Amino acid sequence: MNSLNETPRAGRLHISIFGKRNSGKSSLINALTGQDIAIVSAHAGTTTDPVYKSMELHPVGPVVFIDTAGFDDFGKLGELRLSRTKEVIKKTDIALLLFDDGSLDPEEGWLCSLRDAEIPVIPIINKTDVLDRAVLQQKVIMVFGLIPIMVSAADGTGIEDIKKAIDKLVPEDFKREKILGDMVGAGETVLLVMPQDIQAPKGRLILPQVQVIRELLDNKCTVVSTVSDGFLKALDSLSKAPSLIITDSQCFRYVNENKPGESALTSFSILLAAFKGDLKTFIEGAAAIDSLTEKSRVLIAEACTHAPLEEDIGREQIPGMLRERAGEGMKVDIVAGSDFPKDLKKYDLIIHCGSCMFNRKHMMSRVEQAKTQGVPITNYGIVMAKLKGILDDITLPPSR
Ligand SMILES: Nc1nc2c(ncn2[C@@H]2O[C@H](COP(=O)(O)OP(=O)(O)OP(=O)(O)O)[C@@H](O)[C@H]2O)c(=O)[nH]1
Ligand SMILES: [Mg+2]
Q1: What is the pLDDT of residues 124-183, one digit of tens each?
Q2: Whole-number Å distance between alpha carbons of 361 and 31
Q3: CATH of the domain at 363
Q4: Of 110, 113, 220, 275, which Cα lies nearest the Cα of 124?
Q5: DSSP string, 282-317
Q6: Is the domain of 282 the same as that of 265?
Q7: Which terminus of the chain, N or C, has less C-beta within 10 A?
Q8: Residue 399 in domain
Q9: Which atom of ligand 1 is nearest to the CA of 27?
């Protein structure tokens, strides 16, 4: 569990390491992090499940390294491990690809998959302390047109070069860390309408709220928090109307009807939709709600498996409201965590949660998958606003 002053894993740059078994992936992770995180051994196939390590990587910033099982694994278990490794591609921002002796076909296959997914690749040759790597180096240059970084996880050669290469490849959109962008300026007052006790996780605030509060404080804004029952009182206590009200989606309509005309209104989940996903696609996707019928099938996808607030919205409120419009017979499938069907075509609409537990890359890979298969995709916050008839009244954050 992250403490509140740490960057949550979902907000970190995801750097994954791929290579054959025994090429030294785990040793390299240990060398890069300066810690003994991953088990290393001369036995091929040591790493089985992906291993995640969050850390501050100088000069890059907060990252998470992902160690994987060798991509030349075989047999029944090997195939399972391989599919786990392939899953990692979806969340990878930067890939470290190890080239090793033997046939380079596996490396070539992975290079193609990474390029198809538009993931920047850092080519690496390891074990330069014990092996003569000149021939391999020439091959990588000639065959793939890549200039590999020559390293040794054992004696530390080249480790700094890898860090510098990572720093150069940090994607542009990753550098935007602001959820609110320039929606509010310094000195402005923002009123937050937070979930009531019963909907909030016991004793905690959920991540988007924590991140929004941090950003507003950094922006030198005055932040006032309340719940829907205290909304009018909170407004009364202010000497002028807040510039912006950010509400929990559940009381969208109530807040919209009772807010001062000059206060802009948005919701936590809409902010998150713009930050983690593709707001334009989500708004277009929400239009599909109007054509749902009793014969339609909707997929609801949650990123985490244990959020009472989201469960409540995703499992009860949204299906309930949709059936009210489309008819009781409308089918709703719910998936959680990393479960997400490969074939989406049987669905008329996909509704995704705010995805605070996923990184943007992961969320966007689902958006792309839905787009490729021609299935509209939208998000909890947008759907709540649409179903409550106030999508046109809200202030949208800047798209990425
Ligand atoms: N001399 C030397 N040995 C290395 C180096 N990197 C890794 N090794 C050794 O190579 C073997 C395999 O290293 P691992 O880090 O476990 O390799 P891996 O790619 O994670 O292997 P799997 O998890 O089995 O896929 C171990 O015996 C390491 O000590 C290096 O730079 N120099
Ligand atoms: Mg390993």
Answers
A1: 999 999 999 999 999 999 999 999 999 999 999 999 999 999 999 987 666 656 788 778
A2: 26
A3: 3.40.50.11410
A4: 110
A5: HHHHHGGGGG--TT-EEEEEES-S--HHHHIIIIII
A6: no
A7: N
A8: no
A9: 15
Looking from the CA of residue 151, the nearest atom of ligand 1 is 31
pLDDT at 106 over 60: yes
Residues of the domain holding 132: 9-175
- Which one of 114, 149, 175 terminates a domain? 175
Angle in degrees, CA 308, 311, 315, rounded to 5? 150
Residues 39, 151: one domain? yes
Q: Per-residue pLDDT tens for 30-89? A: 999 888 878 888 888 888 889 999 888 887 878 999 999 998 877 888 788 888 888 899
The whole-model pTM stands at 0.63
Q: Whose CA is nearest to atom 30 of ligand 1?
A: 127
Cα distance between the two ends of the chain: 28
Mutation test residue for ligand 1: of 27, 100, 132, the one with most atoms within 8 Å of CB: 27
Q: Is residue 1 part of a domain?
A: no
CATH number, domain with residue 223: 3.40.50.11420
**Secondary structure of 197-209 as H, E, C letters:** CCCCCCCCCCHHH
Task: Give which of 189, 337, 207, 197 is closest to 271, Cα–Cα.
Answer: 207
Q: Give which of 25, 8, 117, 119 is closest to 63, Cα–Cα.
A: 8
Residue labelled with tokens 């669905």: 347
Say which ligand is closest to the CA of 44: 1
In short, whether 23's Cβ falls inside 6 Å of ligand 1 is yes
Sheet with 244-247, side-by-side order of all strands: 222-227, 189-194, 244-247, 264-267
Please state the length of the chain: 400
Probe residue for ligand 1, chosen from 21, 22, 25 as the CB with the greatest number of ligand atoms within 8 Å: 22
What domain count does the chain have? 3
The answer to whether position 220 is within a domain reads: yes
What are the DSSP E strand ranges found in the chain? 13-18, 51-57, 61-67, 94-99, 121-125, 149-150, 189-194, 222-227, 244-247, 264-267, 297-302, 331-336, 349-352, 377-379
Q: Is 234 helix (H, G, I), strand (E, B) or coil?
A: helix
Q: How far apart are CA 250 and CA 385, in angstroms?
A: 9
